[in-house]
Amino acid sequence: MKKLLLVLSVILGGCATQPTNLVLQPIDTSNLQHSQVAPQAIAISSQDLRTETYLARVRKEGEPAQLVTAGNNPRMLMQNAIATGFTQLGYQVSGDATTQLQLQLDKLQVDVAQETLEHKGSSIAAVTVKLIKPKQELTKRFVAKGSFKGVMAADAAQMESELNARVQQLLQAVINDQEIHQFINQGVVQ
C-alpha cells in the first residue's frame, strides 16, 4: 500500500505544472495608523534595482531551477500603493513637490525547495526609501521575510499569496513609519 501511494504521489507530482508568471494584487491601504494634520506635498518616484528580476525560483533536486516572472510590474504596484497610502493620510502627491520620496525595490522573491511529497519556501521583500528635501536627506531600509511549507508541489496561488503578504507587510511599515512622517513635516508650521 505504501509503495502504491508513493508511486501515485510521484506520478501526480510529475503532472503538476509550474506557473510561468505570478500576479501581485493591489495593496490594501485601508489599515493605516498615522493621522497627519497639515497636508504636505510630496513627489513619489520608484526604481527597480533587483538583481534577480524573477519573482519565484522553484528548485527540484537534480533539475535546473524553474524561474517564474511577474505578470504585472511590481515596482509600479508598490509606487501606486505608497502614493495611495500617503494620499489617504492627507499628503498631497504632486510631481513638483520639494519633498521627494524615492522608493527603490531591492528584492522581491519567493524561493521554493520542491521535494517528492512536500515543499518548503521562503520569501523576502526589501525596499530602500530615500526622502530628499533641500539640504536634507533621510534613507531607510525596510525588509519583510516569511516562510511556508506544504504537501506536494507548491502552486501559483500559494506563491502569490506569500509574496502579496510580504509586500503588504513591507508597504504598511513604510506608510506607517513615524520617522518618515517627522521628516516630511519637519519645519512645517501648523
Automatic annotation (TrEMBL):
**The organism's place on the tree of life at top rank:** Bacteria
The molecule here is called Lipoprotein
- In which organism is this protein found? Ferrimonas lipolytica
